[in-house]
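User: Predict 17528_t:CDS:1's structure from this.
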Amino acid sequence: MSSRNSPELELFESISDDSMGQSPLFSYRCAGYSPIQIMGSDYNRLKDDDELNDNLIVFYMRYCLEKLRKNNEDDAKRYYLFDSFFYQKLSDVNNNFSRNKSKVYETMSRWIKVDLLKYQYIFFPICEDQHWYLVQIINPAAIIDSPLDCHIAIYDSIAPRFKHRRAVNILKNLLIDYVQDVKGETINKSVKISHSIVNTPKQLNTVDCGVYILHFIETFMENSSELEQKIIDKDTDEDQWNPDALPTKRQTILEIIKNIETEYQT
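Assistant:
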């Protein structure tokens, strides 16, 4: 952990002093992203075995990226993490402009603040019908010259088979429109890129989907050199995702938040 004066974290109030969960606990800063406030109510969601919300999903994804950055800065530079609101907005805009798809990118481009093509891995956490799943674009720049080397992977701790065609198409079209905008390269929307649902452990209850996708992204960051090609080849198995850590994952995240709170109170 950083020292009390670190710009990454700013403590607001002790968890123990905020039984109703209405006050911010700290503001978490991840390089390249806006700070995110963790509330007492977020902590309570973890403690009470409730479903994870957007705040917790975004916080822990960025926490994992910062952990990777401290161990291997060059490796961390290969990742870009969208927050959960981006896909929600993208999906809504696609519905609103169902008859005028050119308006979709025009509307969404203002929220893309980075060069997406310089990243090897782009992650989108998605919540639909009160269920979290994760979409990953691997090698996005390959869509220009070698589309089949660009891969869209789905991580879903419930679905036993592929049920995510809409999300894949929406994100593929976004990437194609982005390439045309920033590179001037025209790519036919009918171009085929590979996609798969990753073989991962499945949750045993109805509330831990968010916990599982956080575990998947953390495990991928720790083992990307081993997992990337297996995902593309559709050759992963559940044992490659450190399933033994899943029963205590919620407690692990809870303790991370508690440790931050405790350290910055002293």
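The radius of gyration is 19 Å.
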